[in-house]
Amino acid sequence: MSWFKRLKEGVTTATKSKKDVPEGLWFQCKKCKETSTSRALRENFYKCPKCDYHTAIGSAEYFEILFDNQEFNLLFDDLASIDFLNFTDLKPYHKRIEETMAKTGLNDAMAVAEGNVAALPLVVACMDFKFIGGSMGSVVGEKISLAIDRAIETKAALLIISKSGGARMMESAFSLMQMAKTSAKLTRLAKAGLPYISLMTDPTTGGVTASYAMLGDIHLAEPGALIGFAGPRVIRETIKRDLPEGFQTAEFLLESGFVDLVVNRKDLRETLADLMALFAQRERA
Question: Where are the domains of the chain?
Fold first, then answer.
């Protein structure tokens, strides 16, 4: 079937039939607007092949990038949020959970896996922004808690990859309690002498920034990541002053000492391997 026909002075001109393009075959960069194939994007560590813009990815992609031979075990994947407060905003919270689970195939905004990086054991807790904005609820806090327990049990390093809009206010104070819970649990990891590496990706904001994201032994960030507690508009209105250009980017925070390294995604696995090897040498000394 043609897209349209042009009729003029008795002459009919028809376009060629529209060919179906498989969904997901092409990728258009949000930054440079250039188009690439999805395969080229994937082979470039999910970065734009033209401008190196780091696209938003989830736990499945990070696990694929990080672990040796892409071999890992998912942990605590049966945990899922419930609407224990019968909360309703634009829609009932229980309905929001059900719809998001069906759409994303995830049980919540945090996934945990264990495996090896350069033959060294690592437990990774990774946030998924596509699950209600990567919001921190009770399940997120519980999975981090269990991931820490697993790291202590297996004497493994811990990596938390943050990507969040902040606390999940549909769970009210139960969400805010996760800030204290995860911080206290990380103290146990430190007392066990095991390293915790925090990777902040775009965006890392709200209660996540105010708790476990900023409590690492080493703070890593992806290029261009937005990192902060409140947004620039809120801060500007509060302090009544203009803000430095890009003051919440990973690069600005590196200059200010809040971030230790800004790491290109293609170098992430190698950087982790080097850091874990250094911590392992310290433990043997």
Answer: 19-55, 57-284
Amino acid identity at 201: T
Q: Is the peptide bond before 244 cis (omega within 30 degrees of 0)?
A: no
Task: Identify whether the C-beta of residue 186 lies closer than 8 Å to the C-beta of residue 148.
Answer: yes
Supply the pTM of this predicted model. Answer: 0.90
Nearest-angstrom CA–CA distance, 50 and 35: 9
3 SS3 class: coil
Q: Are 199 and 160 in contact (CB under 8 A)?
A: yes
DSSP structural state of residue 30: T
* Assigned superfamily of 57-284: 2-enoyl-CoA Hydratase; Chain A, domain 1 (3.90.226.10)
Q: What would the pLDDT profile of 149-168 be if each residue is shown by its tens digit?
A: 999 999 999 999 999 999 99
The model's pLDDT over 87-141, given as tens digits with 9 standing for 90+, comes to: 999 999 999 999 999 999 999 999 999 999 999 999 999 999 999 999 999 999 9
CA-to-CA distance for 137 and 106, rounded, in angstroms?
14
